[in-house]
Design goal:
This protein has 249 residues and is an alpha/beta fold. The chain has two domains: 80 residues, ATPase, nucleotide binding domain (Nucleotidyltransferase, domain 5, 2-Layer Sandwich); 157 residues, ATPase, nucleotide binding domain (Nucleotidyltransferase, domain 5), CATH 3.30.420.40. It is built from six helices and eleven strands. The strands form two sheets. A six-stranded mixed beta sheet has the order 6-9-8-7-10-11, with helices on both faces. Strands 3-2-1-4-5 form a five-stranded mixed beta sheet, sandwiched between helices. β4, α2 and β5 form a beta-alpha-beta unit.
């Protein structure tokens, strides 16, 4: 069994898998586990200690040592960390491939393996990323503030606007300050994504490319999805598995 970690800025997804198709998933706050010993105690509650390897996709480099120490101390193994430069089945057509976030790398890998050589991926996390895959070449992407980042910016940058909890709305105009913020944030982000995708389709001749939405925050906008959009919450986990498959061969 492989032990996979998808370490995000806010939450970490932990998954156990044998084949990269089905996953036994747990989720924790990223900064709730501070040491390799705490990680061991947490995992022991749910999993047997029979891991073939440990593979980590992390966008929080200052806690990577926890996974390194855990693998060495409790598994007598070296943790494997996702990076674009280690994966050779995709051409990383950007200035500095080593700077591509691991979360983006695994999204692109899984999109390529599961949906074809052309794809557009939108990952709704703390920040929202849009990835462009053209003929199995990663052409780059876009990063925009996530839902909660925009809410927090309004709250911290003004004297009176409240911090609200986001939820879908069936109207485009709010009747109170809270609904004004909710509608404004969600519609601004969705409108920006729609515009960006249309430009990408036109500029890169990707009019028939599949569009995949993923990431924990995508649940907020699931009911707004157009019929041609694919909703795939396990895209990143499969990407981690495919990365391991590639480098283990």
């Amino acid at each position: 069994m492989l032990l996979l970690f998808d370490v995000g800025n806010t939450h970490t997804t932990i998954a156990l898998t044998k084949d990269g198709k089905s996953f036994d998933i747990k989720r924790v706050s990223t900064h709730s586990i501070q040491t390799e010993d705490e990680l061991y105690v947490f995992l022991k509650m749910f999993y047997r200690n029979d891991f073939k390897d440990i593979v980590v996709s992390s966008v929080v480099p200052n806690i990577n040592y926890i996974f390194e120490f855990f693998a060495e101390k409790y598994l007598n193994k070296k943790a494997i960390f996702v990076s674009a430069k280690e994966y050779n089945e995709i051409i990383w057509n950007v200035n500095t491939p080593e700077e591509i976030g691991a979360d983006r790398v695994v999204d692109v890998i899984a999109a390529s393996r599961d949906y074809g050589k052309d794809a557009i991926v939108v990952d709704f996390g703390t920040a929202i990323t849009i990835e462009v895959l053209k003929e199995n070449r990663y052409e780059g992407g876009v990063i925009i503030p996530g839902f909660n980042m925009m809410v927090n910016a309004l709250f911290k940058g003004t004297a009176k606007l409240p911090k609200v909890e986001l939820k879908p709305s069936d109207t485009f105009v709010g009747k109170d300050t809270g609904s004004n913020i909710r509608i404004g944030v969600i519609n601004t982000i969705l409108g920006g994504i729609d515009y960006t995708i249309e430009r990408i389709k036109s500029d890169y001749d990707l009019k028939s490319a599949p569009i995949i939405y993923t990431g924990g925050q995508s649940k907020l906008i699931r009911e707004y999805l157009k019929k041609d959009i694919i909703y795939d919450l396990e895209l990143g986990l499969r990407g981690i598995y495919y990365f391991y498959e590639n480098i283990a061969c």
